[in-house]
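Quick log. Single chain, no ligands specified.
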Amino acid sequence: MRSSEEAELCFPQLPNSSCRKTVNPSSISMLMYVTLSSISLLTVTLNMLVIISISHFKQLHTPTNFLLLSLAVSDFFVGFLMIFQLLLIDGCWYLGDLVCILYNFFDYIITSASVETIVLISIDCYVAVCDPFQYPTKVTHRRVCVCVLLCWLFSFLCVFIVMKENLGQVGKYNSCLGECVVVFDKIAGFIDILFFFIGPVTIIVVLYVRVFVVAVSQIRAMRSRVTVITVQGSVTVTVRKSELKSARTLGAVGVAFLICLCPYFCLTLTGQGTQLGASSIAFVLFYLNSVLNPLIYALFYPWFRKSVKFIFTLQILNSGVCNLWLWSHYGSL
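-> predicted structure:
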């Protein structure tokens, strides 16, 4: 029978080099297991529904939905990689140094791509509301696909630069067996904070404030039937109801992003670390963002609710369903 000291070690058979477990009350550990497991399962399931819906139904192949598809893919993998965080509840990493580095590397790429995709979504929302007449020519399928590809490549490049020291020698910064540590130097930390927190948050806030101001003015214009004189003549200031509804939905996605990710990055900025025990609330909020996005779609988008119904009733397996119209007119989007 092991002694109490051995029971507190990650690797009791190596008492001289093993890390110690994080001792938490059993109720707290169980709560964290249940919470993270539930968030992981919901994140994977709901984002898979979004991926299947947009990929399968041709009517959903719009520029905006391609951005939502990219976000759903990154959120799906966030939920999948959350499984590895369950291993760290007791403070021990049992999968070795190589898996530790690979996990952190892909985790940073995925979360970074998610942040950059939110920026693209805010730009899409801005153009749709602030320049609706030029939107079809400015935001095309080709341009959106190129932007999404560049977004993922940019995330990969930045994460590679940030983590190059850790990739060069795995386990370099581990002080004992059972530890999974990634350390950034000052330059790498600056790149991480600038491109994946300060920069994106600034862009998102500025664009959504602008969208809100313009949307309110346009709604007032529609209600009062204001006519604006332009160079080409007299045109009525109108924004389709679907565009304003879509902007409201994308705005909700942006607000959810800010609420969920800001506490986590603020703790990182203050040097309090990202360990689960040190910032559990911010940590859970960080991952909760990935499950909130599809819930927002379900709340605001009729096409998502209808496509989910087709998936669960297996009608999606019928031939020709991919060409089925999920709404009677564009305005119901």
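The first strand starts at residue 227 and ends at 230.
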